[in-house]
Amino acid sequence: MNLPNKLTLIRIILVPLLIAVLLIDFPHHFIAALILFSVASITDCVDGRIARKNNLVTDLGKFLDPLADKILVISTLVCFVALGISDCIIVIIVLFREFTVTSVRLMAASKGKVVAANIFGKIKTVTQIIAIITIFILQYALELINMGIIPLSNNIYSFLTFLFFIIGEILLWISTFFVILSGIIYVFENKKFITQK
Length: 197
Hints:
This protein is mainly α.
């Protein structure tokens, strides 16, 4: 297994740790989650560059890389729903898109073809990463207020909780737009695998 694929596997391995850090309530857990998520996201950027630069692009890499992205992002979004940070509708849309795209990939694979992610899929991933990182930062700010490290009144804390939720939802819905768009384009570009008998 080459270096880019090893980095992709590291991204997958980091996910259970990220889930634990998010769901176990301990001091500064949001900053810990931010660090883990950022490291995982950096491996996403680095593995692709190394693979292209050193001609190490493999079918395994084309399969593992988008899978790792899906596992990382969906796991985080599900945790957000569990924590009351996000709306479950977003997760449902993301899951529907990912199941659809994966089904197309499987149909292509059954015909001996490996279909890589398109540019719109990459934009989707970038917008999701930006939204998630922003939410981590906002939630950490609320955590610091709750711990008394940033002294603010209960009224201001309540207002910021509402405001930060709205900001997070807006960013997630922007990313969800690209989730839908990239899914439609992906299916359209690869409809030959669906229609072939």
